[in-house]
Amino acid sequence: MRQKIIAPGLPSTTISRPRLNKILAELLDNHDAVAILAAAGSGKTILAQTFAKEENWPTAWLSLDSHDVSATRMLEYLASSLTAHVPEIQNVLDQAFIDCHNIEEIAAVLASNVTSGKLLIVIDNCEKIIKSDDANSALETFLDYLPVGVRTLLLSREEIGFTIGRHLLDGHIGRLRDDDISLTMDEATNFATALGEDATLVGIRWKDSLGWIAGFIFGTDNAAENRNQDRNLRDYVITEVFGRLSEEEQTFLMETSVLNAVTQQAAVALCGQEARPLWRNLMNSHLPATITDSHAVIYHPIFRDFLREELSNRSPDRLIELQKIHVDLLIESGQLEEAVELLLNLNLTEKGIATFEIIAPLLVRRGDWKTYLRWTDALGITLEDHPMLVGGYIKSLRGTRHLHRARDFIRTLHNADKLRGILEVDPTLIAHIGWCMNTEPKEAIELLNCYDNENYASDVRYFLDVTTTGDPVSPPLHTKSADTDRLMSWGYLLQGRLKNLVAMLPQTEEWPPRSPYTTPHPLLGLLWRGELGSARELLDQVSDELRSRNDTDIWYYIEAWILHIEGNFEKSIEILDLAISYSRNTGFGFEPVFLVLQGMGLIHLGKTSHGITALENALDQAQGAGQESYAEWAHAGLGHAFLLNNDAKRAAQHLRLAVTGMVKAQRLLMLPMAAIYLSEAEWVLENKLASDAAALIAFESSEEMGAFPPLHLAMRQFPEVARRQQSRQPDINWKNFDYIDVRSEVQQIGTGNTDVFLETFGQKVDIHINGHELLIGRLKVIELMCFLMAHPKGASRLAVQLALFPETDRRKGSNHLRQVIYQLRKCTGLTLERKAKDSISWNTDVIARSADIEFESALRRAKDLAGQERLDKLIVALKLVDGVFMPGSNLEWISVRRDELEVLIEEAEMEISVLAYKLGQFEIARQNCENLLARNPYLTVAYKILMMTEIAVDSQPSILSVYLRAKKAHEDIGLEIDDELTVLMNKQKKKVRI
């Protein structure tokens, strides 16, 4: 273990390479991480050590090996390597294993708690984890969340794949290759001198090796052509290194090659007391190996592979014997995971199982479910005979979503009366059993009732009861485990406890938060509260890779809901197909939920018959499983469908069942929508009192949830409900829900010239493409477009980044900007063009316009006109303004722009008032004066024009009213009323007396 987390050490012949130090320093100035990708024998490890030493970088080191394909084990080692710089880091990791659900969250927590300031983390042998998506994803997340000041070197013989590979391709991780780190002629001369060799032959050796260090050292021919095959170095090792040793020394080297690091103690344990002098000789030999500060010898990987192969060929029985001794050494030193891996290779199942039982709690604590299942299968364990392993096995099946297998196994244990004894060993298992059985909630409740483990089952029982029972259910006061907070959050969702749900999100001033969140369901809470933009921004923080690996069906479902609310029903339905397929494959059991939303989407597309089919399937499945809450959703959807088909009778039948069940059980989420549909159906059936009662339920349930967006959605489809209730229920302000029509469906954007219009004013801020409103709810996308509209010739990525994320550090801001550009493309189909000097702008086929810029242009055109023409142009210009500029944004440059536009708007309205008055168009003058005073009630000139207008039409009461308003407004700010207004008023008094 110690040899993994300390640098291997430097050979005595190491030379300084200022050229490479400078290149590395520059790369680390511009990148948070640098990958050194070069062949074995290229000097990667030595370069990393010399750079850290000569540039005074405090360093944490981790050498990976093949066992680190287990991502949680790799993070354990990373924490160990960081302990010297961050003493509390191990405690942080231990808590993360308890609190977090997936490896990416754990990696993020670990990285964000690295508080050392300046620090260089070196991760060697990255090629060992290339084939592990889990380890790659964990490492990528770890790198992404490291704080400013921490830098990372990734050393690898092979190209790094997965998300890290994409960071390399797009330039977010710097890189050095073979050609970069190859010896120059001057460096080769210095190296030869350090080796004590004749410098006159350096030129030939350097030319033959093309600067490949291993080839240069060992004088191999044509080394450069074969550097990636390692053949010439291997040949040299055989003939010039290994072949010149005595038979006793050769045997010693082969036998100690089973060790990762050869210490004297380990060598004696393997080879006996006669190993002492041989080990001392090894310390002084010129071999392809390094010696660490703790006096351990680490063979070069190529040399070690050669020795292992030689030992296997010459003495296969001896290799097995040595590996058995090595197992004992690993167990003795507490490296039990490595011991189990070796025991698997040796087919020593009995000892492997015994060791597995010792280490199993650690795997469970870390959530290393894949390793747990792999070992269980490889060791051929009969779990009924090893109760200590059963709990971890069930948790592992749940953690990897093998829920069909988990349910069958639980039933087998229960029927054989073996589950009670297992629960006595691990009482926390009861929550996981309920979790696994969620697709059969009634069976799950019956199972929970058989065992007295309520302390650990309260969370899962809450979820099951909310899903199935017809009575109100209260959530437990305290959750027992982070493992069950997803079930808690789903229960909150069904009951419409949006405040509880959203409270589970990260509590941070920065939005979207970069810290990980433990469960996806709270995003739906944001949606129901009408915070579509925030929900979209938060979802965009979750990479596609993470969504495809953890809670995949739920991420699909959340994406589908967001698309549904955005009006992209076709894409929502497409994604729900994926969710349904995944749920069926894993046995997750949420198919009715997914089918309900799919049916709703089909109905919105006018495919009512297909929607009814999906909803009937959802109803059948939910009722068959006893999932009453999902059955209510299906009834609500079917009622909506039949209502649109003018079948109010069948609609009411379904909707009465839905509303009655939701009210009785206090499942509020879908109740406002279902109740509005019922109100409409009852009215059509001439049940007016029932219609009133349903409308009242819709309003009161919205109030109880503290969210009205679902009510708004239903009212947009049936605005006549609000119109009726305005007179029938005057104590409720139904005017807020009076909609003229439903927003039209967005059409597919075609090819060719694309007209892009950005509405920047009021509550209708949105993107229009080729005349179609997209209903974009993501503020950052709108802000990006607004900035680009103001810079039509393009702007540097850095300028855009600073404009959109002024208070975010450069690295995170760059990540945020990439996400926003990606979302712009995703939701509009627009791509930005990259120009020279890292500048971005609109694509050449885009005609980009915005309301604020067109408003300014219209004002400029009006200046060249006079009289009626000028008035008409100013009125047209003001029609572009429908509220405050970008009301949801608090960016400073937008605030400045907002102030500028407010001045222009006020000036335009004032000019319209004056022109309209002069042209005798008094109603226009009156209306614009009122607009001015609505924004600025202290504007004397507006009162003056308004009084003059009222005088012109001889409206004496209005003249007095305007004067009194002006007087009060001035008194409110401690001023006397303007003399001109008083003069006007006195003239009217005299006129009236005459």
Write a structural description.
The chain is of the alpha/beta class. It folds into seven domains: 2-181, P-loop containing nucleotide triphosphate hydrolases (Rossmann fold); 199-315; 349-483; 532-626, Serine Threonine Protein Phosphatase 5, Tetratricopeptide repeat (Alpha Horseshoe), CATH 1.25.40.10; 655-745; 754-851, Arc Repressor Mutant, subunit A, CATH 1.10.10; 885-993, Alpha Horseshoe (Serine Threonine Protein Phosphatase 5, Tetratricopeptide repeat), CATH 1.25.40.10. Helix content is 62%, strand content 6%. It has a five-stranded parallel β-sheet, with helices on both faces. Strand 6 and strand 7 form a beta hairpin. Helix 3 (71-82) packs parallel to helix 6, helix 14 runs antiparallel to helix 15 (275-283) and helix 40 packs across helix 41 (719-728). The chain is flat.
Q: TL;DR of this structure?
A:
By secondary structure, the chain is α/β, with parallel strands linked by helices.
Multimer state: single chain
> Would you identify the CATH architecture of the largest domain?
3-Layer(aba) Sandwich
Lateral strand order in the biggest sheet: 2-3-4-1-5
Estimated helix fraction: 55-70%
Low-confidence stretches: 220-231, 739-752
CATH class of the largest domain: Alpha Beta
Number of domains: 7
Outline, from the CA principal axes? flat
How far is the N terminus from the C terminus?
A: 107 Å
Total DSSP helices: 51
Percent in strands: 5-15%
- Name the average pLDDT: 84
User: According to CATH, what is the topology of the largest domain?
Assistant: Rossmann fold
What would you call the structural class?
Answer: alpha/beta
Topology, number of strands: 14
Whole-angstrom Rg: 36 Å
CATH superfamily of the largest domain: P-loop containing nucleotide triphosphate hydrolases
